[in-house]
Every structure is written in structure tokens, then in C-alpha cells.
């Protein structure tokens, strides 16, 4: 379920937003933050997440992060950039919506970096940024050019998990 959430909720934020940033603004994110209050809510969640990591409450953090991913996707759904993108006079707004979405994505990836460092490395390349650090959660990424979106994570299906488990069981030494 966690893998499904990561692909379906988290990575989906980037895939939904990056295309519009590239198509409408040559990959350059907005110079201004469209909704600073909402960004601050996501940023301030880092305080609780940091405390949870210190207490080794990893499961609680995953729940918090996935709830934030739900909120980010809800924001994008409500703003409907795919509809606004059909009207040239709305392009700036679409870029603002999608830039905020990518900033949500960036924050969530920073929050997941302690448990998903390899995903974070791929995201750093995609976002065209130096290695992400916790301090980066305080500031939005603005007026910045990103790379085209490429698949960052594959969904692992149950049959793939079973095959991996069975393969590892086959490699165990036989009981003596």
C-alpha cells in the first residue's frame, strides 16, 4: 500500500505539474508563490515530522506525509490547471498553480529523504537542485528551471513482491 501511495499520490503531483511548466513556460517555475499561506502549512508540518523522526515514529510520518500529498492533489484538482491551460490568458495562473504543486512535492520529498534517499536523488535531478536539506523546507523554489518529468518511481505490484520473496526463499541454505 505504501508503494501505491507513493506512486499514486506523491509522484503524481510532479507528473501532473511538470508538463504544464514545460509546455507553457519552457520549464521555468513561477517567480512568485501563488498561495503562501498554504505553502507555510506544508512547511510548518516539517516541525512535527522532524520530532517524529527523532522519536523513530516512522509510520506516523508516512501517514502525515501521505495526508499532505492528498491535500496537494486536492489543491491541484480544485484549481483544474488542465482546463485553464486551454486559455492563453490563464497561462500565468496555470504556471503558478503547478509551481506551487511542485513546491508541495519538493517539501514532501525532503520529508521522505531519511527513508527514501534514492527517490530523493532522482527528484534532485528532476528539479535541477543541489542535494535537498531540511533547511530547504523553509523556502519555496521560485523562478527556477526544472528538467522534463521522467518516471521517478515504479509501482510494485503484489505478484512482483511475491516473486521477490519466493526468490529470496529459494536462495536460503537448506536446513541441515
Automatic annotation (TrEMBL):
Domain Methionyl-tRNA synthetase anticodon-binding per the UniProt entry, residue ranges: 48-162
Cofactor(s) the protein requires to work: Zn(2+)
Any GO BP: methionyl-tRNA aminoacylation
One Gene Ontology molecular-function label: methionine-tRNA ligase activity
GO CC list: cytosol
Pfam families linked to this entry: Anticodon_3
This protein's UniProt keywords: Metal-binding
UniProt name for this protein: Methionyl-tRNA synthetase anticodon-binding domain-containing protein
Amino acid at each position: 500500500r505504501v508503494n501505491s501511495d507513493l506512486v499514486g499520490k506523491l509522484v503524481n503531483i510532479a507528473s501532473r505539474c511538470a508538463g504544464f511548466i514545460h509546455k507553457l513556460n519552457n520549464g521555468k517555475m513561477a517567480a512568485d508563490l501563488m498561495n503562501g499561506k498554504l505553502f507555510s502549512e506544508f512547511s510548518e508540518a516539517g516541525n512535527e515530522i522532524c520530532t517524529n523522526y527523532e522519536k523513530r515514529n516512522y509510520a506516523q510520518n508516512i501517514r502525515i506525509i501521505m495526508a499532505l500529498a492528498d491535500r496537494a492533489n486536492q489543491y491541484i484538482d480544485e484549481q483544474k490547471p488542465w482546463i485553464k491551460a486551454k486559455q492563453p490568458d490563464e497561462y500565468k495562473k496555470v504556471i503558478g498553480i503547478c509551481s506551487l504543486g511542485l513546491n508541495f512535492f519538493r517539501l514532501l520529498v525532503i520529508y521522505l529523504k531519511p527513508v527514501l534517499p534514492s527517490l530523493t536523488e532522482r527528484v534532485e535531478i528532476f528539479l535541477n537542485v543541489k542535494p535537498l536539506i531540511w533547511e530547504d523546507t523553509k523556502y519555496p523554489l521560485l523562478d527556477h528551471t526544472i528538467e522534463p518529468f521522467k518516471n521517478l518511481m515504479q509501482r510494485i505490484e503484489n505478484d512482483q513482491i511475491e516473486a521477490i520473496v519466493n526468490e529470496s526463499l529459494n536462495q536460503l541454505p537448506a536446513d541441515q
